[in-house]
Design goal:
CATH superfamily of the largest domain: Aldolase class I
Structural class: alpha/beta
Helix content: 25-40%
Radius of gyration: 23 Å
Number of helices: 15
CATH topology of the largest domain: TIM Barrel
Strand content: 15-25%
Shape: globular
CATH architecture of the largest domain: Alpha-Beta Barrel
Bound molecules: iron/sulfur cluster
Distance between the termini: 30 Å
Length: 461
């Protein structure tokens, strides 16, 4: 358990004011420099209440409470946040920035016995642990190029859920290029469809061409239209490069006007070789953060939420990714891990995210020591120690951003996350106009984004 003392209280400069943020006490406030200094002095000296400005007393009363750590999975047994099924690593598209291993991947689909065994194991575990939600996420490659696996898992899960009185919930990440009959299946049987869709025709076709170079836009557009009218929740996952970063606001508005998404998820393009060869790079972090806030405002005007995965969370967390929350992801070859990437990807950065393997297609063998190791790994991220996002972003992607031995310096991902999170804090405090001014202030943004320590007690007034 981390030793916190008063190091969980953060102070973040926002132009000429400061955000006081103590996520483990669920406290945020906007204060001026002299109030921030007075709070710091009162906490440092343990000053009696009457020595501090009486208007600060309510804040000091909360800040002197013991912090509450987020709940972490505990006990020897694994307790998965969800079951992930990688139906196949194969894909019918040729997105230039794919790092799921699809371009060189075998077309092998998961064996149906393996898929059924995974569902049965998960349902048994949930029952033993007296849980109610049987939550399954499908990944690829493109998961719908192995439709029999998806259909088998959905029907099997519904059967065991009915028998064991569990509530089934399904989510799929897909490119939507699976044809009308399979789209209809997704619309009717899957709760949430996360559709990869990067925007208008020129961007979609540039980012996500089909094999052979044809554009994927007509098929994805049709899928988004169909899913908009289906019972499934449509989430649009839009990837942002240097090419579309400055049209994020327009893209969000167009998605809202044209389709019926329940959420729009913006994420940055991964800097992979194939993308660089096509002249595509991750966006500038300041531009991404500023345009994300503008896109959020545009979508809000339609009543639609825009999300960024590492943004502020409603509860403090040790991890914002599947790794560290006991997630069990089964690959087509029966390997079981906590991350959906190919093992080579984690091994490259010195991580071991394997959890176990299938035994003879019928039984999942989870290694308890691996579960404990991964749980411990996510609580130890030196780069994040002094960052005000450490209990929300909590390191982001463990493979791409906060792997063991990574630099202690902030990455571009950190800088954009810190700006977006500060804007979210201002929104929560009902100060959106301050966030809107902040994102256009090119002096204030680096001061916020690059600050080495956000700890109040290390702040030099
Ligand atoms: S240092 Fe970076 S990765 Fe860590 S919590 Fe902060 S923003 Fe996230
Ligand atoms: S480590 Fe990165 S790639 Fe793996 S599950 Fe977490 S966020 Fe995804």
């Amino acid at each position: 358990m981390p030793d916190l003392s008063d190091r969980h209280i953060f102070i973040i400069p926002v132009q000429d004011k400061f955000l006081l943020h103590a996520p483990l006490l669920k406290l945020s406030a906007l204060v001026n420099r002299s109030a921030a200094g007075a709070i710091r002095a009162a906490l440092a000296s343990g000053a009696a209440a009457e020595n501090a400005d009486s208007r600060l007393q309510p804040l000091l009363d909360v800040l002197r409470q013991p912090p509450l750590l987020p709940p972490a999975p505990n006990g020897a047994e694994i307790s998965p946040a969800f079951l992930g099924i990688v139906t196949t690593r194969a894909c019918n598209s040729a997105c230039v920035y794919c790092d799921f291993g699809a371009p060189g991947a075998s077309g092998r689909a998961m064996d149906l016995q393996t898929a059924v065994a995974a569902v049965d194991w998960y349902a048994r575990l949930l029952k033993q642990q007296e849980k109610e939600l049987l939550e399954i996420h499908f990944f690829g490659g493109e998961p719908m190029t192995a439709p029999a696996v998806v259909e088998t898992v959905v029907h099997r899960a519904r059967l065991v859920a009915a028998r064991e009185r569990l509530t089934p919930y399904f989510e799929i990440s897909t490119n939507g290029l699976c044809g009308p009959a399979l789209l209809a299946f997704l619309g009717d049987y899957v709760n949430r469809v996360v559709l990869s869709f990067d925007g208008r025709e020129d961007i979609q076709n540039l980012h996500r061409p089909l094999r052979g170079g044809r554009g994927s836009y007509p098929g994805v557009f049709a899928a988004a239209q169909y899913l908009s009218d289906s019972p499934a929740q449509l989430v649009i996952r839009c990837c942002v490069s240097q090419i579309n970063v400055d049209i994020m606001e327009d893209t969000a508005r167009w998605f809202c006007e044209t389709f019926n998404p329940s959420l729009i998820n913006f994420e940055i393009m991964q800097p992979v070789e194939s993308a660089a060869a096509a002249g595509l790079y991750p966006p500038d972090p300041y531009e991404f953060a500023a345009n994300f806030i503008k896109a959020r405002r545009a979508a809000e005007s339609f009543g639609i939420k825009t999300v960024y995965a590492a943004d502020l969370s409603t509860e403090p967390v040790y991890t914002s990714c599947p790794v560290g929350s006991d997630t069990v992801i089964v690959s087509p070859d029966g390997r079981i891990s906590s991350c959906y990437l190919l093992p080579e990807k984690w091994q490259e950065v010195g991580l071991d995210l394997a959890l176990g393997e299938m035994r003879g297609r019928r039984e999942l063998a989870i290694n308890p020591a691996a579960v404990q190791n991964i749980r411990a790994m996510v609580t130890n991220k030196p780069r994040c120690e002094k960052c005000f996002c450490r209990w929300s972003c909590a390191g982001g992607c463990h493979v791409g951003n906060t792997y063991p031995g990574c630099s202690a310096d902030y990455s571009d991902y950190c800088r954009q996350t810190r700006i977006i999170s500060a804007c979210s804090l201002l929104d929560e405090l009902n100060l959106p106009e301050m966030a809107d001014t902040l994102i256009d202030d090119r002096e204030a943004l680096p001061a916020l984004a690059c600050r080495e320590s956000d700890r109040l007690m290390e702040w030099e007034v």
